[in-house]
């Protein structure tokens, strides 16, 4: 394994990518993940090449889908994931013990998360997620919804509604992690106060280095660390570099304008139309290149604020149209590990950031459940 060549302590490292959008990619671009592909960022051969033992596959629910349609969409993505699972190759993991048992065996263990909790009408729906093996719920996406405010939309609830508080408390009881990526700062603080347990940010970088509302301010990073949680750095160039962020803002506005002009109705048609418009606008308006070193800047900043015990990796692969130069896909995880070592992190710290920190939080949630 390429990681082992960097330091002996990394030879049997558990490597968790806290957020990939593989299921949505499979919906729009069907593929066989057991094969090495020339599209996307994630497949089984490249996961193995990069030493990634346990990627999260996020079931992403677009914000414009109402709860019932959103639930159907999530279940469609869940079915696509199940079709890719192969015993001895790509297997579902539900517990931290599942991940540890397969690490080093050549088996890649997939963890599941729900990105956007809008389909949950109340705490009674959380049990459905537990039955599916869901390990976290990102409380919202780009829009505020019935019970949670988003970081990129106007506040409705001043954080969480009463129903939102009940949902996150039931998540804690069920051992499902609360993910505060995408949520407003107030909603993140509200969730932490409601559950009094570690939370994660599955794919968020440092606002101090790139002033984007999707990133976390240092004060919130510190509160997540104090909760015992982990912040998993996002690799999207638009969240890493101010120039890329400005360019992305312009093209996001263009996507919104063009999509609105279509006047599409019907859940499936809306999802497909938005995807096509996004692809066309993004292809015509690429972001300026951002090197791996800038991503490492964000990881090291988070370490400086929270400590190496509270930082992880959540690339957003297969959900982002551009990636840092030098971190082109999951096979390049050793390049990231090498860059962190070169910045002065000890091998033990790199090992923690690659996966051990997340597993600690997952194990904690399992102990608290019931």
What does this protein look like?
With 370 residues, this protein is an alpha/beta fold. α2 (22-28) crosses α4. Helices cover 46% and strands 11% of the residues. It is globular, with a radius of gyration of 19 Å. The strands form two sheets. Strands 1, 2, 3, 4, 5 and 6 form a six-stranded parallel β-sheet that branches. It has 14 helices and nine strands. The N and C termini lie far apart (38 Å). β5, α7 and β6 form a beta-alpha-beta unit.
Describe the secondary-structure layout:
Blueprint: H1 2-6, E1 16-20, H2 22-28, H3 44-50, E2 54-60, H4 67-84, E3 90-92, H5 96-102, E4 108-115, H6 126-131, E5 134-138, H7 162-174, E6 177-179, H8 185-195, E7 200-201, H9 218-226, E8 230-233, H10 242-262, H11 267-284, H12 292-306, E9 311-313, H13 333-342, H14 347-368
Parallel strand pairs: 1-2, 2-4, 3-4, 4-5, 5-6, 7-8, 8-9
Helix pairs in contact: 2-4, 7-8, 10-11
Short structural summary:
The protein contains 14 helices and nine strands. With 370 residues, it is α/β, with parallel strands linked by helices.
> Based on CA inertia axes, which overall geometry fits?
globular
- Estimate the helix proportion, in percent: 40-55%
Low-confidence stretches: none
Secondary structure class reads alpha/beta
């Amino acid at each position: 394994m390429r990681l082992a060549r960097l330091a002996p302590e990394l030879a049997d490292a558990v490597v968790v990518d806290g957020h990939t959008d593989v299921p949505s990619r499979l919906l729009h671009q069907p593929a066989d993940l057991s094969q090495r592909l020339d599209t996307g960022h994630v497949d089984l051969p490249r996961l193995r090449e990069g030493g990634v033992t346990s990627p999260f596959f996020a079931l992403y629910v677009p914000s414009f889908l109402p709860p019932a349609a959103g639930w159907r969409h999530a279940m469609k993505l869940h079915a696509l994931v199940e079709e890719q699972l192969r015993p001895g190759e790509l297997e579902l993991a539900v517990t931290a013990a599942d991940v540890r048992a397969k690490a080093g065996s050549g088996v890649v263990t997939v963890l599941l998360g729900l990105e956007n909790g809008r389909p949950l009408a109340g705490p009674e729906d959380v049990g459905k997620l537990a039955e599916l093996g869901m390990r976290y719920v990102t409380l919202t996406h780009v829009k505020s919804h019935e019970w949670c405010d988003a970081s990129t939309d106007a506040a409705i609830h001043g954080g969480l509604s009463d129903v939102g508080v009940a949902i996150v408390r039931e998540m804690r009881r069920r051992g499902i992690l609360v993910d505060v990526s995408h949520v407003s700062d107030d909603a993140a603080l509200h969730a932490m106060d409601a559950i009094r347990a570690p939370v994660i940010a599955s794919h968020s970088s440092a606002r101090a280095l790139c002033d984007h509302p999707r990133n976390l301010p240092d004060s919130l990073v510190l509160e997540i660390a104090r909760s015992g949680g982990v912040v998993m750095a996002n690799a999207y160039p638009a969240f890493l570099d101010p120039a890329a962020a400005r360019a992305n803002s312009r093209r996001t506005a263009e996507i919104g304008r063009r999509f609105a002009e279509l006047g599409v109705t019907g859940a499936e048609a809306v999802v497909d139309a938005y995807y096509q418009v996004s692809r066309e606008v993004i292809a015509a308006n690429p972001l300026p290149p951002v090197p791996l070193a800038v991503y490492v800047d964000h990881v090291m900043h988070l370490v400086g604020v929270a400590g190496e015990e509270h930082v992880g990796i959540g690339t957003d692969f297969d959900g982002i149209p551009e990636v840092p130069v030098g971190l082109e896909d999951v096979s390049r995880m050793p390049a990231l590990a090498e860059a962190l070592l070169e910045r002065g992190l000890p091998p033990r710290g790199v090992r923690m950031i690659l996966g051990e920190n997340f597993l600690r939080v997952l194990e904690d949630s399992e102990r608290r459940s019931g």
